[in-house]
Amino acid sequence: MEALKHWYQSERRKLRTLSRRAKAEYIWQYYKLWIIGIVSLLSLIVYVTVHRLTVPADNWLYITFANTYAEAGNGSELWRGFVDASGYDVREKNVYFNNSCYFDPSDTGYNAYYTYFVAYVEAGTLDAIAMERDDLALLGTRGRLLDLSGTEFATRYADRLVYAVPANPDYGTEPLPIGVDLSDTRLVADFHIYESSCALGLSANCPHPDAVARFLDYVLSDGAEVNVS
Asked: Of 100, 120, 221, 228, which one has the greatest count of Cβ atoms within 10 A?
């Protein structure tokens, strides 16, 4: 403590002998890293505070559009169209479309994007993932997608189901419905998120299946209002 007091007094004496411009140059030369660090920390605090106060913490819906460079994220035409049609109030909760995810479902090596995908599935954050149809079928073998057997999805979209045989025989040896084929829907025809084939699978821990159903209604429709009652 005494050393700090001595340093402070010594610096004050130095600054007294300098002109205003010389003081500024001296402080910047010797303390710029501290200044930059403090300003950065304050900026981070302000950002986090504003983010927490203005951005809803919960989601209406969280969908990942994997392996595409098309505009499919928040604020995109797809996002705006669905939000408008569904009537979801994004000031109350988020509708989050993530289009920054790239991984090959057939590759069992480490991939950061796949790791994030698994983490979001396990955390119960991710509702659904869209990919090219064959890729989704491969992903379905890895046990991260919901088995649609016996669900309303299997009944409602019976002619669109995508099947996969689990890689782990403990989960069965017969093909299971793990996705809905959307190759002939607005995702391809209007929004060009994928150019040829497309399918959507629900997360194994999907927290908002009703919202996923509303999204499917939207992309299978002509863009008219979606019933959210």
From this structure: 120
